[in-house]
Amino acid sequence: MELISAEQRAALIWAGRPFLKLELRDSYAFDADLFEAWRRGDQEVIARVVDGWRDKVASEVAAGRRLRRVRVVSEPLSEYQRMAVDISGSAVEAGEELRWLPRRLVSALPLPGNDCFVLEDLVIFNVLGGSDERVEIQLHRDPNVVQFCRDSFEAAWNIATPHQEYEPA
Questions:
Q1: N or C: which end of the chain has fewer CB within 10 A?
Q2: pTM of the prediction?
């Protein structure tokens, strides 16, 4: 395992490989500005952030890469996750495959302890602190760790609900 920077993480994620993303938290401090803009109804700020992600997704999908994400969420949804549901449609329209998985359904699933991106031969973990702030980014290349995370993602994916069909409790 090695620690990497946010810039290194972004370079790996957007290096032209398909990825799986598993999100396990109900809120993220690094999205605080977006969250506050959503609360205020500030469509300009929301559009700037959402359009940036949508454009990246569209570019990757146009190049033939598949981007899949599972969001494990507590229900009823936190206000943060209500925002996430609200703003995720444009990335889905651009080709991101997004599924929602109520936390009550994952009790018996083997899941990693931290959010992660799974690429072909590596896993990037976002380690968060108690106030939902990112405290470190870990890069793992151990094939056993990569396989565990891939298997965990697929198990979650198989029982999660596609974004277009998800109706929060």
A1: C
A2: 0.95
Helix runs in 14-169, H state only: 32-40, 43-62, 79-87, 89-94, 143-159
Kindly report, residue by residue over 27-51, the tens digit of the pLDDT. Answer: 998 889 999 999 999 999 999 999 9
| Token duo for residue 53 | 């992600």
Give the Cα separation of 40 and 53 in Å (integer).
21
Q: What would the two tokens of residue 48 be?
A: 């700037």
Give the whole-angstrom CA distance, residue 97 versus residue 19.
Answer: 11
- Cβ distance 73 to 26 under 8 Å? yes
8 Å CB contact between 135 and 129: yes
The burial of 73, by beta-carbon neighbours within 10 Å (0-12 exposed, 13-18 middle, 19 or more buried), is given as: buried
